[in-house]
Amino acid sequence: MAYPDPQVVEQALAAVEALRASAVEHEQRYRHLLEAVHPRHRAGATNLLHYLAVRQQDIRGLQRRLAALGLSSLGRLESCTLASLDAVLGALDALARRPEPRAPGECPASFESGAALLEEHARALLGEGREGRQTRVMVTLPEDARKGELKRLLEGGMDIARINCSKGDADGWAELIARLRKAGQETGVACKVLCDIAGPNPRSSKIGGGSARVTLPESGERPRFWLCKDVKDAKRARAAAGDADVEEALAVSCTIPEVIDDLRPGHRVFYDDGRLGGTVKLVTEGAALVEVDLARQGGVKLKPGKGLNFPDTELGIASLTPKDLEDLDFIARHADMVGLSFVRAPSDVERLQEELAARGAAHLGIVLKIETTPAFGQFPRLLLAAMRSEQVGVMLARGDMAVEMGFVRLAEVQEELLWLCEAALVPAIWATQVLESLNKTGVPTRGEVTDAAMSSRAECVMLNQGENVVATVAFVVDVLKRMHEHQDKKRALMRPLSVSRID
Fold it and tell me: Which pLDDT value is given to residue 211?
């Protein structure tokens, strides 16, 4: 047997040993965070710290060397980081012909137990799931969904029902859940309920002064508008600006006036899922002047009730609104889990945990909705804070993420979130406009079918409500069953392919 160059093997050994040492050191450094997590998540939190330590380094060169030696290139170590490193070290020891076997190290998750714990956590939060697919299906329900439709959804593959608490009221939600429970009894299909609290979701309120349609010209002066606490503030802002060019600028008020106090020149502002975007040029008392530098072709008509995103602004607003606290009273009695919208910092998670405990509902699952730039930047801390609760999940709310971070970054951001969720052994929910065209028009696009296939790498996929939602559930279930035969997270599964035959 021909052995590889001993120097190459020794270099690889030293590099992998250094990675393992950094992982263990990282665990010790943040042991105080581990001690705070729920015992159910101790292994996942420890493994997450190990994985974060490895991912702080560029190991691409090492990966190529390991692959050339015929060994694992560490591309699938998310759920069992130390065990993966130890397996490679054992193989390198053999190649180096070391006489004594390496003493086995203590690992929070093995190749088998890591995957098993993740599935255990997914079952506890999201339900048992269905035969033939690992990924559950969540459907956002309208308040007026009838029992017949609910039965068809359950029979077709819906595993979790989502209620968006930014719409409707407690009486309507209670009636919907009662119909859902009845449909579940009649079909024999269990279904979990997720209630999303609205959170501090800034939206446009009133529109005043000038034309409400904003068009970005190919050349010349860019349009501007005042973003105000109240449209009446625009008059005073125009006078304070002392600029004839902004005298007639359109005024748009915000449903959360305090946001205006946090804006600074240079901060970006996006309207209606990024259909229009601009940069703050001037801030006066009660108003900020926004210069438009992005608009959908044909222009955008500004209307009340549209979402506003502030990716560069540290918003000094409460994480739970008075409405959220009122809705939590209902959620504590009727739901299985609560979605924390527009989470930004660990303190937001801790506040929700306190409010649930005060209502005797600390057992409810908490789903972190990652939809802002600050949430992505603090994601490991958010995860560790949430893991103080017994049941935890993460929703990849990719619509707002795309607006805040840019569509060009969305692909890498959603990948990184999936990796970190798997490392923490926490289930992930793939969300936002999945099979939207099929749901609304009855015909899917090629791109969204590929997106639906990607959702098989998460523990759950979320569909919005739509006229064709029953057919959309059936379609995504078919896709998930097919992908279940081909893919397990990042690992391609090599089942026999009929197309492989050439005779």
Answer: 63
